[in-house]
Amino acid sequence: MKPEDLSDDAIRMWMAYLMNPKSTLRFGGDHAKMEITPRARDALNELIEIGAAEVIPANDQYPNREHYGSTGMDLRDQLRQRTHLNPFEDKEDFVSFRKKDDAELDGPSANISFGSP
After folding, report:
1. Judging by DSSP bridges, how do beta strands 53-55 and 113-115 pair with one another?
2. Cα distance between residue 7 and residue 20, in whole Å
3. Are 73 and 22 in contact (CB under 8 A)?
4. What is the 3 state secondary structure string of 53-111?
5. What whole-number distance in Å separates Cα of residue 50 and Cα of residue 47?
6. Sign of torsion, CA 10 15 20 25?
7. What CA–CA distances, in Å, run from 91 to 41, 84, 108, 115?
8. Taking a C-beta distance cutoff of 8 angstroms, is the pair 50, 112 a contact?
9. Whole-structure pTM over 0.85, yes or no?
10. Closest among 73, 32, 68 to 51, alpha carbons compared
11. Is 33 helix (H, G, I), strand (E, B) or coil?
12. How far is residue 21 CA from its own chain's centroid?
C-alpha cells in the first residue's frame, strides 16, 4: 500500500491523532469507558501498514491498553490533494471512538489520550 491508496478515514485519523511526529495515541484497556470504532480501527491499520503509525511500548498502568505512535511520516500532500476533506465541516462523518455499553463497564475509568509524550 502507498500513501495515495489510503482511505479518507485513514487521512482523517492521521490528521486528528498522529500528524505531529511526536504524537501518541493510547486507548482501551481493562475497564475502559470508550472503545475504538471498527471504521477507525481499519483506518489505524492502514496507517500502520504504510508505516505512518507503529505500536509503541506501554508507559502507563492500564492493563491491556493499546499504544501507538507517529513515525513522523508526512501525509500533508495527501491531505492537500483531498480538497473534499474539511475537518471543520465533516466532524460528524468520522467517529473514531465511542462509549461502551454500560453493561461492558465494570471499572472506575479508562481514558483515551493523544498528544506528545
Report:
1. unpaired
2. 19
3. no
4. EEECCCCCCCCCEEEEEECCCCCHHHHHHCCCCCCCCCCCCCCCEEECCHHHCCCCCCC
5. 5
6. negative
7. 18, 13, 29, 19
8. no
9. no
10. 73
11. coil
12. 14
User: Cα dist. 5→9, 93, 111 in Å?
Assistant: 11, 20, 31
Q: State the Cα–Cα distance between residues 62 and 72, nearest whole angstrom.
A: 26
Amino acid at 35: E
* pLDDT by position in tens, the chain (length 117): 888 899 999 998 999 999 999 999 999 988 888 899 999 999 999 999 999 999 999 888 889 999 999 999 999 998 888 888 776 666 557 788 889 875 454 444 444 544 544
d(CA 26, CA 3): 23
